[in-house]
């Protein structure tokens, strides 16, 4: 009553054994594909972590640098500016990780929060009554009177270019893991599991437990079984090309490191621009928001203090070098995996499964 291992000679197999063999080949095939995928998946997961650590290191550096700007050059507003600065870099981090937000909304929200502080602490340092309504009026007025000139828009442009590639790379790496996980659990058809039993276990029914399949026979069976997985070849090659493009974009003119480390300078230029245009801004704000309460004998506008260069360059250089090395190492490895799905049958037939360097092997019907 055998369905798969039918043979002219007497056999030691039963129908139940054939069913056990079918369960065994399904399990073994999943395990062998998982073993092949492991190195590739390990490499991608490792680089997701490594890229994330490098991003976080650069973000921390840029955030510290921006905070130092307020502490050294704009001390009257340093304490109150800490929260908007923190929010800006949190938003940037979330954007890189794929959150539903934009660089423009993050930057403009930061400048909306910054204007009431610049206006009340630097341009008109005598203001004592900064009520919620007055603060909100200043925030809304910022969009119309544009106190920071072209610097806020320039910052959006620079960051959008550099952060886009980082965001896309982060999403692409996650997609790679998803693809690999899906192929691990690709279901074997009934025909495939029967063909695998015939190749691997039917010799056992003849007492031939040491004989192994012929190489060509194994390749034919595996290619048939993995036809749906092999169809991913063209898309996988395209995926690797996209990763290469994104890593090159990150390293090219839209350099993430340069854009992040330049945030403090953009903010400084924006504040200087607002201070230099203080009288015009005050006149416009008075018309729109009214005049706030002033201290007796209005204080003179805060003097413009030259910005001290923060001494964290070493941290930045190390994070920059680390990210560059990770990019090169990663893309070099991924390019080697370009034929991963095209060659999966060959790799499964390699090693212990087939008979190599021997004069005899199993061809599905007999020993040849």
TrEMBL record:
Membrane topology listed for this record: Lipid-anchor; GPI-anchor
InterPro entries in UniProt: Glypican (IPR001863), Glypican_CS (IPR019803)
UniProt keywords, alphabetically: Cell membrane, Glycoprotein, GPI-anchor, Heparan sulfate, Lipoprotein, Membrane, Proteoglycan, Signal
Major site of localization recorded for this protein: membrane
GO biological process: cell migration; positive regulation of canonical Wnt signaling pathway; regulation of protein localization to membrane
Pfam family, any one: Glypican
Domain of life: Eukaryota
Cellular compartment(s): Cell membrane
Any Gene Ontology CC annotation: plasma membrane
Residues making up the signal peptide according to the UniProt record: none
PANTHER family associated with the record: GLYPICAN (PTHR10822), GLYPICAN-5 (PTHR10822:SF19)
Function: Cell surface proteoglycan.
Family designation: Belongs to the glypican family.
Name of this protein: GPC5 protein
Organism of origin: Smithornis capensis
Gene behind this protein: Gpc5
């Amino acid at each position: 009553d055998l369905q798969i291992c039918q043979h002219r000679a007497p056999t030691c197999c039963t129908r139940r054994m054939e069913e056990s063999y079918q369960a065994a080949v399904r399990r073994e095939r999943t395990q062998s594909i998982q073993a092949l995928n492991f190195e590739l998946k390990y490499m991608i997961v490792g680089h997701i972590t490594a890229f994330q650590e490098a991003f976080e290191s650069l973000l921390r550096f840029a955030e510290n640098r921006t905070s130092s700007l307020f502490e050294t050059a704009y001390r009257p507003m340093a304490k109150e500016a800490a929260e908007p600065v923190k929010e800006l870099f949190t938003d940037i981090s979330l954007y890189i990780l794929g959150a539903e937000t934009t660089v423009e909304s993050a930057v403009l929200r930061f400048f909306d929060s910054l204007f009431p502080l610049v206006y009340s602490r630097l341009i008109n340092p005598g203001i004592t009554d900064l009520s919620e309504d007055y603060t909100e009026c200043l925030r809304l007025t910022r969009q119309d009177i544009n106190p920071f000139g072209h610097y806020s828009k320039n910052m959006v442009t620079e960051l959008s270019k550099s952060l886009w590639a980082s965001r896309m790379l982060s999403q692409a790496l996650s997609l790679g893991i998803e693809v690999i996980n899906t192929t691990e659990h690709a279901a074997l058809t009934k025909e495939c599991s029967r063909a695998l039993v015939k190749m691997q276990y039917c010799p056992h029914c003849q007492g031939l437990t040491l004989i192994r399949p012929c190489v060509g026979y194994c390749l034919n069976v595996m290619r048939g079984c993995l036809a749906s997985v092999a169809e991913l070849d063209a898309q996988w090659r395209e995926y690797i090309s996209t990763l290469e493009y994104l890593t090159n974009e990150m390293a090219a003119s839209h350099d993430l490191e340069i854009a992040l480390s330049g945030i403090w300078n953009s903010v400084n230029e924006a504040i200087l621009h607002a201070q230099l245009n203080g009288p015009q801004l005050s006149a416009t704000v008075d018309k729109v928001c009214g005049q706030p309460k002033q201290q007796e004998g209005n204080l003179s506008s805060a003097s413009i203090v030259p910005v001290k260069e923060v001494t964290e360059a070493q941290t930045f250089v190390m994070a920059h070098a680390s990210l560059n090395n990770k990019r090169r190492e990663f893309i070099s490895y991924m390019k080697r995996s370009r034929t991963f799905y095209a060659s999966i049958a060959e790799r499964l037939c390699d090693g212990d499964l087939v008979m190599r360097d021997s004069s005899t092997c199993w061809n599905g019907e007999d020993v040849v």
